Structure formats: structure tokens, C-alpha cells
Amino acid sequence: MSIHPTPAAHRWSRRGFLGLASSGAAAALVAACGSGSSSSSGTLNLLLPNYDSATAPVKAALQAVPGLPQAQLEMASGSGWPDVDSRFQQDVTAARVPEIAMVGINMLRYYQENQIAQPLDDLLPPAGFDASAFDPAILSAGRVDGRLVGVPWGVSTMTLFYNKDIFTKAGLDPAQPPKTLTQLKQYAQQIVGSKAARYGVSTSLMESSGNWVFQNYLLSNGGSTISADGTRITFNEPAGVQMLQYWTDLTSARLSMPGTLQQIDDALTRRDLAMVLNPSSVRSLISTPMGPSLAAATMPVPDGGQPRTPPGGGALIIVTKDKNRQQAAAKVVAALLGAQAQNLMVTTSGYLPVNRSAAGQAASNPLAAPSVEELTTLVPWENFPGNNSNQINKLLNDAITAALLGKKSPQAALDDAAKAGAALLT
């Protein structure tokens, strides 16, 4: 098996990709999906984000599981799920659509509605896929209108990582992490007030995936980003404003530092920051530099709220419509979801395995156990309907950043984003 990095040049926007469905190129996509092969040989192509936490365990699994069809990894130009969409657009243009792809869980409806993702209910069982090995909530995340169109391969949940030594220095009990957002603020005040660390807590709301980060707080506070019928943006309603106001207040009080995921994780490992609320997948990146001082806990919830956990991460879809290649692709997908491959994921990445057997192994790791617990509270990762979802997500991310940097009030920032986003709903 070989790995081919993708050049960064000529990247397509998600709007261009999503607009494909309403253009003449849609026919080309359907034809490409059904033409049989994206390679000239019998080798299957599997499209992934260019992110070591995804590529390393997939590569290890394909090499370790015996008897699989030959599969070649094709990587997007970047590590995000929109980068996979962009690479998919490039492949459509070049008439080399992959047989299998790992796409963002929140994009499954789009790939199904535009006849890209093939139904898996009948494809996977003959290939050895055992649905009983998965929690129903995991499989539900892969269903669109009752049909299984993708299966989450690895999941990230919002997890509290913290420095036990800083807790002790601040007079806090490392065995008693905060459970609510009020407690989280109190802990941050005590940490900064005692000068145990420069900042108490941070979360990656300014990351390009800030929509997902924000949804963890918003949904747990009883809110939503979009109405149930998909016609009205709702992230600027009280539940959303309260959550953005909470983080803006922490930032203005210098209890929290705004920043990207990388900046926040770096501050944690430097001991400038005591607590981070970030995707569980960062565990593999911070555990070594942090050593025994690192601890983990479930995400503190808003006071009076309930934990509601949108799963971050990728889902495997089958793209090819060629029956023979579908069968071969199904064997690869089933193997990547099997116990052997999922156990390899536990040792080579910070993603949470979706197979119950491997999840049991992950639960024995005290740094992963809180994230495994959060798998019981999964809810859908909301996305905006239509061809302009990426633009609306960017409006929301820009609004969050503007509020955190003090350029707008949380209410004004979210109202402006909601008004602009409403004009993009289709």
C-alpha cells in the first residue's frame, strides 16, 4: 500500500463542491461513481484527511488485518473535513472518484442526498460487519432518513484536560474536577488568583471547527443552531448568547485565553494554562509532554443543563456504484470498524473507537475513560441545510471570534451572523 500526499494548490471551496449537485457536473459525478474504478488496477482508493491521527491507525489496520483487498490511501491537502470535500471536488473534476472516503460526520446528509454515499444496510453485513458490536447511538449518527449511509470510524468528544500539579498548587483537589460551568469559572478564578498559572481555562472556539466546539455548550444548554424544520437559524437565541457571553466574560476577566487548538494545547503543555476543553483526539498529542500531571474529565455542563455530545470525527462511506468494487470496499470498511482495527486506533491516535470491544479497552485508560463515558450522551452534530452551509459556519465562527476579541457583544455578533446566514439558507 502506498500513500500519496495531495498538493495544496488549486483548492476548491465547499460552496463549489456543494454547488456541484445543482450543476451539469452532478451527472459527471454520478457517472464517475458508477464507472467502476478510480485507479487503473484492482486497487481501491480510500480518501482521508491529511491528519496523522486518522492516517496512522488506518494504515496500520490495513496492514494488520489479513485477506483484505488492496487499498491505497489518498490524502486531502489539509487536516480538516472541509479539506476532504475539496479533494473530492478535485477527484470529480479529474474523473477519479475514490471508492471509499472518510468524511465529516455532519456532512453525511449531503453525501446521501446527492447520491454520493451508497446505502450500507445491505452492503456491510455480508462483508462481516456486526451491528451488535456498536452502540445504537453510534449507528444512529450514520443514518439519514432511517438508512445507514456512513458509519463513524472514530469519534471525538469535548473533554476537560487539566494539570493536576496546578490544581494542587492552587489548593484544588485534582480528584474533584469541575462538573458545571459555574464550578469551572470558580476553579479558574482560584487558579489565576493564586498565581498557580497565568490562565485558568480555555477552549478552541476560535478554531475553524469552532462550530462543533460551540455546539457542545449550546446543545447542552438546551439550544440549537437551526430549527427542526431547517428553515430558521437559532444560534442567536438565549441559549447561544448565554454560552458565548460566558466565554467572553472569562476572556475579558483574563481567566481564559482565546486561541486556536494548537495555541491552547501549547499553553497547557507549557503550564501557562491549567485546563482546556478540547476534542478528545488531542489526548495523543498532549499526553507525552504533560506526563503524569495530565488528567481528564467529562465536559462541565451549563447549570441546569444536560450533557448532549455531538460527535466530532469522521465516518466511512462507500462511493462506488460498481457492484464488484462495492463488495471489495465493504470488506475494507467492515475491517476498519472491526475489533482488531479499532484496538489499533486506541494505541495510535486519540480518537475514540466505535466498536464496543475496543471502547472497553479505551475505558481502561484514565485519560480516555471520561470521553468513552460521553459516548452515552451522543446527539447529532448539527449542520445547516443547502449549498451554503460552509459560509454560514464561517459566519458563526467569525461572530464567535469577534465577541471573544471584544469587537462586538455576543448578542450583536450572533444576531449579525444569523441575519447574514438567513439569506444563505436554501
Please give the number of β-strands.
13
**Span between N and C termini?**
42 Å
Task: Order the strands across the largest sheet as they lie in space.
Answer: 1-3-2-4-12-7-13
Tell me the major beta sheet: 7 strands, mixed
- Poorly predicted runs of 5 or more residues: 1-27, 35-40
Mean pLDDT: 87
Oligomeric organization of the protein chains = single chain
Number of helices, where a helix is a run of at least 4 consecutive DSSP H or I residues: 18
Explain briefly what this protein structure is:
With 426 residues, the chain is of the alpha/beta class.
Describe what this molecule looks like in 3D.
Residues 1-27 and 35-40 have low confidence and may be disordered. The protein contains 18 helices and 13 strands. With 426 residues, it is an alpha/beta fold. Helix content is 43%, strand content 14%. Helix 9 (210-220) packs across helix 10 (238-252), helix 14 packs parallel to helix 15 and helix 17 runs antiparallel to helix 18 (410-422).
List keywords for this structure.
426 residues; alpha/beta; globular; disordered N terminus
Draw up the topology in text.
Layout: E1 3-4, H1 14-18, H2 25-34, E2 44-48, H3 52-64, E3 71-75, H4 81-93, E4 100-104, H5 108-113, H6 136-141, E5 143-144, E6 147-148, E7 151-156, E8 158-163, H7 164-169, H8 181-193, E9 199-203, H9 210-220, H10 238-252, H11 261-269, E10 273-279, H12 283-290, E11 294-298, E12 312-318, H13 323-336, H14 339-348, E13 352-353, H15 356-363, H16 369-374, H17 389-404, H18 410-422
Parallel strand pairs: 1-3, 2-3, 2-4, 9-10
Antiparallel strand pairs: 4-12, 5-6, 7-12, 7-13, 8-10, 8-11
Helix pairs in contact: 3-14, 9-10, 14-15, 17-18
